[in-house]
Design brief:
alpha/beta; Aspartate Aminotransferase, domain 1; 2 domains; 40% helix; globular; binds pyridoxal-5'-phosphate
Length: 412
């Protein structure tokens, strides 16, 4: 049994907002467990100083960053902590890596494959490399709202430099078989860049099993504060040209962490991962291995969320005039995260979202920074869709209350 009551108690914001308030906008940023909030406050109170000094507080900052790096490495199953770089957000890391790749682009291998299912942050920056001579090849989602790895085959060649793709879509929730993408791309000598931002809070991540080359996450979607992290194969990161002052080592992570970032948020991220590890103890009380505990927790989260997805799809289907996008079969919930885009016929998405907000239900409307998905689904660009995005602290009861509210809106 998933310990939902204990989980909800771990997130003070849920109580603060009132038991009746429903957080269904988690794909834009999730709430934080108490220990992560405490870690941020403690960092600011006890060691709000610059790293690299010889005094106690500064050494503690260095130690906190090193500890967080190790925790993120375990969370991702990285080969070594030095493969993990900390920064402001995922977008700036995608940009940093793409610009570095652009600088060294050769005419003999200048093709970049991008998808029309991604968040624009993993598209626009690659498109900008046309100025460096890149040829862009589009990998299109099928009508089922999914990217199929076999569709890559005709797009790949010895000219492919990199495939940029999501692990899961932030608009439709569809999950991509990235291990299969890596297998096919590597067979042509191409690299794979994965946007893991949306998938991050929803299931286990194993960069070695995915066999990708780069991967980015946003901490604030994985129950941490606003920050982002980049993972890459050490040798590849070390080989990319980045801007750095001469005295900064030309190796990861230092070369990707030029300047000061938000140390208290790195400490908060570490604590958010400790929360996940602790949750793993509920499922494996005798285990002490950190990776195993994180895996147990993330597998339990994935399975619990699959039951929420099935419930949500049934609820959506029960409301008249609702058009749901992407995977709608309750039997296929393991192919998606609990993130749902939908519209109500003859009602604007902004009207539906505003009315839900008035009833204490937080959802989002618009294009979800995925205007190409909206276009493919023939959704009016100006209006977009409504998105409800759940995480493991949401409940079936909230889904039922949401469905009742949506029914009232649909009939109005
Ligand atoms: C799939 C996906 N990629 C990238 C981003 C951008 O992340 P960040 O805000 O960390 O730059 C988001 C943000 O919502 C996202 O959902």
């Amino acid at each position: 049994m998933f310990p939902i009551h204990e989980v909800r108690k771990s997130f003070p914001a849920l109580k603060q907002a009132g038991e009746n308030f429903i957080f269904f906008d988690n794909a834009a940023g999730a709430q934080m467990p108490k220990q992560a909030l405490d870690a941020v406050a403690e960092h600011l109170l006890l060691r709000n100083v610059q790293r690299g000094g010889p005094y106690r507080q500064s050494r503690e900052v260095d130690a906190a960053i090193a500890r967080a790096r190790e925790s993120v490495a375990i969370f991702l199953n990285a080969r070594q902590p030095e493969e993990v770089c900390f920064g402001m957000n995922a977008t700036s890391f995608i940009r940093l890596v793409s610009m570095a790749i652009g600088q060294k682009l050769r005419a003999s291998r200048n093709e970049i494959i991008v998808t029309d299912l991604d968040h624009e942050s993993n598209i626009a920056t690659w498109l900008a490399l046309r100025a460096n001579g890149a040829k862009i090849i589009w990998w299109k989602m099928r009508r089922d709202g999914r990217l199929h790895a076999e569709d890559l085959d005709p797009l790949l060649s010895k000219k492919t430099r990199i495939v940029a793709c999501p692990l899961a879509s932030n608009s439709l929730g569809s999950i991509l078989d990235v291990a299969e993408v890596s297998r096919r791309a590597h067979a042509h000598g191409a690299e794979v860049f994965v946007d893991c931002v949306h998938y991050g809070p929803h299931g286990p991540i194993d960069v070695q099993a995915l066999d990708c080359d780069y991967l980015v996450c946003s901490g604030y979607k994985i129950f941490g504060p606003h920050m982002g992290f980049l993972w890459g194969r050490k040798q590849l990161l070390d080989g990319l040209p980045t801007f750095r002052e001469d005295f900064i080592p030309d190796t990861a992570p230092a070369k990707f962490e030029v300047g000061t970032y938000v140390y208290e948020n790195v400490a908060g991220m570490d604590a958010a991962l400790a929360y996940i590890e602790n949750l793993g103890k509920r499922f494996s009380p005798t285990t002490s291995g950190r990776r195993v505990l994180i895996l147990k927790a993330m597998e339990a989260i994935r399975d619990y969320e699959a039951s929420l997805s099935a419930e949500f799809l049934r609820a959506l289907a029960s409301v008249e005039n609702v058009v749901a996008y992407g995977i709608t079969d309750p039997a296929a919930v393991l192919q998606r995260t609990p993130t749902f885009c939908f519209n109500v016929k003859n009602k604007s998405a902004s009207d539906v979202a505003t009315r839900l907000a008035k009833q204490g239900i937080a959802v989002r409307n618009g294009n979800m920074y995925s205007p190409r998905v909206m276009k493919r689904l023939k959704i009016r660009a100006a209006d977009g869709a409504v998105r409800a995005s759940l995480v493991h602290y949401n409940t079936a009861d909230e889904i039922h209350r949401f469905a009742r509210a949506l029914r009232r809106i649909s009939k109005a």
